[in-house]
Specification:
The complex is a heterodimer of chains A (587) and B (131). Chain A is of the alpha+beta class and 587 residues long. Chain A has helices at residues 4-10, 22-25, 28-64, 116-126, 132-140, 154-163, 185-188, 200-204, 206-211, 222-238, 275-278, 294-303, 338-343, 347-357, 359-368, 393-400, 409-420, 447-463, 532-550, 563-586, and strands at residues 89-90, 96-108, 146-152, 168-177, 216-217, 243-250, 256-262, 312-314, 319-321, 324-326, 335-337, 424-425, 442-443, 477-487, 490-504, 511-518. Classes of the chains: A alpha+beta (587), B mainly alpha (131).
Chain lengths: 587, 131
């Protein structure tokens, strides 16, 4: 058999065996291994080629075919948490009451300060409030870190930076700022160095302020707050009083438009303020409010049918119970009809009315008006009223004209609101209501009783003790209150609380204004009187005149008057005449 | 297919180079955009802080006491008693008997009724405004 090898051998052994036949010469395993290897190489290269084609295709797509344009709309970068760690507090119109701003706090590494004296001189010039000696001492110490001054103003920051002293540096800190300073300081409150709330809304809403970025919107109106505070301060100054409180409420919704307490303090320096200045007299202070309570006694007696407008009582003789004697401040010494008792603020008449109504009825009614428990307002600074325990008949008599029970001015304003707004008790709130839907309140008296009370309160201002509260055109109605203060368990003759609570416009009351002045002293101008009618009522008139246009209450034109109050007066007088005639006939 | 095999390797090399260059170029662009984005974001934060400070300053300058004092000092303003407030409906119509709508087309010779109401009888600065 002629093999190739033999052929080659004959050719001289120089010709190489042809490749295609090499397979037959190699063992079988190697052949298949080579075959497998070649296939694998082919497959691998195909895979890579495919991958790179895809990458290449995508690149062409992105770069040339604009398949990778940025989204058209930017996403909001506002986060849910407040920007500087604490949300703002604003009034009902968005005026900022409390906010956090970033500030720079200056510190030094004394080890890096080369010339403490020179640096101290330069810094003292730029930083007011720090003496050169103080700064030098800090810079010359051997500590590694020392604060020079915290919370610099932007100007101070700029100036210190410009000095270019090595070894100084700034740290970003957040400071709580109160742009309106003392205004509403008791309501807004203040924070400590770590911006944790210590009083007011800053305290009661501390968690909300830290978590949510939306500002806390209060029901306050800074304009009304300013006016109320200013008139209160003017009354205090004129009558040399030691303190005062004022409240303005929306009678229909319970929103507190203003709450003032004097003396007040600056919230950024709350630490140095006296306890007396930081005390919120409007919500935390408890006072025997005196004759303003006659509103509640009369309303309850009329609503329950204990008395009608045609009834009355003989006020010529003082009431003697146990060791106590109840007299009138300006006795009329005759039979007075119910409207007259209210108009002339007769203690005797009111006490007799309350006696007829009964202790239980009085207790229940006062509880429904929110006068037996602490106010349910969004402040920590509230206190439960001082109530007699046990509540005996003598207490019922004195409570009828506001003695023997101590409540806060805020609660009184809230309760009066319930009496004049149609008879629904709506708790006072400090947060702005976001809906216009009518507020669901708890009914305490009938609407008809509320309308009668409005007329009676209007009479007090037209003809009675509240004449100085009559703001022309605004139909103010209300009640004066003058109560002697308790000093060491006895009533002091020369120390009193003078207050006036009013609502306007009395044909359809929208707002309730209360002013209370603590220890006013009579002046020559007031013939030495320092009663509610002389001290608080004029202040309320001033407040009403100034806030009515702001709040959109239009004055009524001349000649308009609630005819119902006119008629009531006429009837009351006629009834008094009738009673007098009856007495004469009987004798 | 067999006839193209001599182009396979050079083609692959060229393709690889092309892909590498494009990829690098794209990466540069993305890097630049990211840098821009981060700059814009920090600028936003800074501007937000500035706005916050300005808002606070604005509230401070607008506090009622300051405005009241300035108004009294420089504008001589006092508070408005209710006798000086009047409603549009209470104004009498013009003498000529023409209503307000009638004069809308003609050139006004007097200020519009609303302006009259606000400045009723005032030439001095006793126009009331609330403190």
């Amino acid at each position: 058999m002629k093999t190739r090898a033999a052929k080659n051998a004959r050719a001289g052994g120089r010709r190489l065996p042809p490749r295609s036949h090499a397979k037959h010469l190699l063992p079988g395993n190697t052949a298949t291994a080579l075959e497998t290897g070649r296939t694998r190489l082919l497959v691998a290269s195909l895979v890579f080629a495919l991958a790179f084609t895809v990458v290449g295709g995508r690149l062409i797509d992105l770069t040339l075919l604009s398949g990778g344009t940025a989204p058209r709309l930017a996403q909001s970068t506002a986060s849910a948490r407040p920007a500087d760690g604490r949300a703002d507090i604003v009034d009902r119109n968005g005026v900022v009451l409390a906010t956090s701003v970033p500030t720079a706090s200056l510190y030094a590494d004394p080890r890096l300060i080369r010339d403490p004296g020179k640096a101290a001189t330069a810094l003292a010039e730029v930083l007011p409030g720090l003496s050169r000696a103080e700064i030098r001492a800090k810079l010359a110490s051997d500590r590694g870190f020392v604060w020079i001054k915290r919370n610099l103003t932007p100007r101070e920051h700029y100036e210190v930076n410009r000095l270019g002293i090595p070894g100084l540096d700034f740290r970003r800190e957040v400071q709580r700022i109160y742009p309106n300073e003392r205004l509403a300081a008791h309501i807004v409150g203040f924070t400590d160095v770590d911006t944790e709330g210590l009083a007011g809304i800053e305290l009661s809403f501390n968690d909300v302020l830290k978590d949510s970025a939306t500002p806390v919107r209060l029901s306050l109106d800074v304009r009304v707050q300013h006016i109320l505070t200013r008139e209160l301060a003017a009354a205090m100054a004129e009558f040399d009083a030691i303190g005062g409180a004022g409240v303005v409420l929306d009678a229909r919704t319970g929103e507190t438009l203003a709450m003032s307490s004097l003396p007040d303090f600056a919230p950024d320096r709350a630490g140095t303020a006296s306890g007396d200045a930081r005390f919120n007299r409007a919500s935390l202070g408890l006072y025997e409010m005196g004759s303003v309570f006659k509103i509640f006694t009369t309303a309850q007696a009329l609503d329950s049918g204990t008395v009608t407008l045609n009834d009355g009582y003989d006020t010529s003789k003082p009431i003697r119970v146990a060791r106590y004697t109840i007299t009138d401040f300006k006795p009329k010494n005759r039979w007075l009809s119910v409207p007259e008792i209210f108009m002339y603020s007769s203690n005797i008449g009111t006490a007799l009315m309350a006696r007829d109504a009964g202790t239980t009825a009085q207790k229940t009614f006062l509880r429904e008006l929110g006068l037996t428990r602490a106010a349910a307002i969004e402040l920590g600074e509230v206190s439960p009223p001082l109530l007699p325990s046990p509540w005996r008949d003598i207490n019922t008599l004195t409570i009828s004209y506001g003695h023997g029970i101590a409540v806060s001015p805020l609660q009184v304003a809230s309760a009066v609101s319930a009496v004049v707004n149609g008879g629904k008790m709506i708790p006072a709130t400090l947060i702005k209501r976001e809906t216009d839907a009518p507020v669901a309140g708890r009914r305490v008296i009938r609407e008809s009783t509320s309308r009668v009370m409005r007329d009676l309160m209007r009479l007090v201002v037209r003809n009675g003790t509240g004449r100085k509260a009559d703001a022309e055109g605004y139909l103010v109605g209300g009640k004066t209150g003058t109560s002697d203060k308790l000093v060491n368990g006895r009533y002091a003759r020369d120390k009193r609380i003078a207050s006036f609570v009013g609502a306007f416009p009395m044909n359809d009351p929208r707002y309730v204004v209360l002013i209370m002045v603590d220890e006013p002293k009579g002046t020559k101008r007031t013939f030495n009187y320092a009663t509610g009618g002389w001290v608080a009522a004029p202040a309320v008139r001033n407040v009403v005149e100034r806030i009515a246009p702001i709040l959109g209450v239009a004055p009524v034109t001349e000649g308009f008057e609630t005819e119902s109050s006119e008629r009531l007066l006429v009837r009351a007088k006629a009834r008094a005449q009738q009673a007098k005639a009856q007495r004469i006939a009987a004798n | 297919m067999g006839g193209m095999r001599r182009f396979a390797i050079p083609l692959s090399i060229v393709a690889t180079l092309a892909i590498a260059v494009t990829l690098f170029h794209l990466k540069q662009r993305v890097g630049n955009l990211e840098k821009q984005l981060s700059q814009v974001e920090s600028a936003i934060v800074e501007h937000r802080e500035t706005i916050q400070i300005l808002r606070t300053e604005w509230s401070f300058l607008n506090r009622p006491k300051r405005i009241a004092d300035l108004a009294e000092k420089f504008l001589g303003m006092r508070s408005t008693p209710s006798s000086r407030l009047i409603r549009l409906e209470d104004l009498p119509l013009r003498e000529s008997g023409a209503g307000i709508a009638h004069t809308a087309g003609t050139a006004p010779t007097r200020p519009a009724p609303r302006a009259v109401a606000i400045h009723a009888g005032q030439s001095d600065r006793q126009i009331g405004s609330l403190r």
